[in-house]
Amino acid sequence: MSAATVAAHHSSDHPSAHHGSARPTATDPALVRRAVKAAALGNAMEWFDFGVYSYIAVTLGKVFFPSGSPTAQLLSTFGAFAAAFLVRPLGGVVFGPLGDRVGRQKVLALTMIMMAAGTFAIGLIPSYATIGVWAPVLLLVARLVQGFSTGGEYAGASTFIAEYAPDKRRGFLGSWLEFGTLAGYIGGAGLVTLMTALLSDGDLMSWGWRIPFLIAGPMGVIGLYLRMRLEETPAFAAELEKAETARPKVPLREMVTGQWRALLLCVGLVLVFNVTDYMLLSYMPSYLTSELEYDETHGLLVVLAVMALMMVVQPFAGALTDRVGRRPVIAAGCAGFLLLSVPALLLIRQGSLAAVGLGLAALGLLLVCFTASMPSALPALFPTRVRYGSLSIGFNVSVSLFGGTTPLVVTALIGATGNMMMPAYYMMAAAVVGGAAVWYMTESAGRPLPGSPPSR
Length: 456
Description:
Elements: H1 3-10, H2 29-55, H3 57-64, H4 70-102, H5 104-122, H6 128-131, H7 134-150, H8 153-164, H9 170-198, H10 201-208, H11 210-228, H12 234-243, H13 252-256, H14 260-291, H15 296-324, H16 326-350, H17 353-371, H18 374-377, H19 387-403, H20 406-417, H21 422-440
Helix pairs in contact: 1-12, 2-5, 2-8, 2-9, 2-11, 4-5, 4-7, 4-19, 5-7, 5-8, 5-11, 8-9, 8-19, 9-15, 14-15, 14-17, 14-19, 14-21, 15-16, 15-17, 16-17, 16-21
């Protein structure tokens, strides 16, 4: 009997489910492993695209946005900074409630198709020289498709793993989701770095830039195959069993107003997680280059090395959250950013390779406190019937308002004040917000998800 079937017979939304009176769900280890792989691959693909797009932006600018065209330049600015983040909350509002109604597996398969199609399409778009202004328009459309699908991806993937994982291993298994994130980013950025080194500028401009985007096609097919083979999660199967018919539609209002406290906690936790994440992975390479006049290639390679270090530590940190709890690990990350952001940035500003590496490594290891615990902590904020929807809304609103805007806001703050320490102060402010959220959140390690029986 599958995990989903077992769960369907033994679940209850009654509070007693939290106190052990409900019969535990028996999870199938093979199914759990498959669920983790399928979820992590989608995240890896999303960040593969993010890594490629960030690192090849200069070449894309020359291909799609020649400086002679003001219209194309405007589209370039809009597309590069705003498009994906503008539509992410919209994707969350559409895919989240849909995942609570028709099932996690179906929606995750759909987001995988859209994400792969959007990325693959970029590799097929003719250049500005070939079709004129339609080239940047098509690029913008492809980015909007990517951003829209991403709105349903992270919340769905973390919900999927959390609902499959045994209670005592949820932190360890959830941590592989962010392992996928780091692997995807390193893969995308590493591939572009390699191509830049091997190809001439002419080759990179004429055809080379397309290769990373076209790789998303086969990656998407593999990811879709893995996701189509999955069964629905035990928690959702149990919800279906209780409803006996198709799931009733949960009003969007209930997902927001009915969960306002959990949503506020979610926004606060995601804020500190993503401000620090985007600061390190997106902003630091450009900070090293533009503000400290650091060699561009060296700056990128140091950040990639720090991410590789984070990948090594990630599963161990995830297992630690199962032993000591999510709250202590997240609190340690917040305290670390509050106390060490200024010393770390002062080290980075010294400019020597050793100092930059040490400063970035300190920030990277603090960030692991969040990457290892959030995939298991965030789904545990919400009950099963609204988990995908409420988490999608809270996560994407926070990422769009605070995470994705981090590089832009910090650059503006440095420009306005002339203070080169602004990145440290911004991370410290985020740490205070995150610390407040940790203070009010309930410990979820080793406990059943809200509305689910124990899982072992």
